[in-house]
Amino acid sequence: MDVASEYLIDIVDRAMTEDVEDGDITTMSTVRPDVHGHAVIIAKQDGVISGLDAAALVFYRLDPESEFITDLFEGSPITRGQEVIAIKGTLAALLTGERTALNFLMHLSGIATLTSRFVKQVNHTSCQILDTRKTMPGLRLLENRAVASGGGFNHRLGLFDMILIKNNHVDAAGSVEQAIQNAYDYKTRQGLLQIKIEVETRTFDEVQQAVHLPVDRIMLDNFTVLDCAKAVQIIRGVKPEMEIEASGNMKLDNVRAYAETGIDFISVGAITHSADWLDMSMRIESL
Question: Quick check: pTM over 0.85?
Answer without folding.
Answer: yes
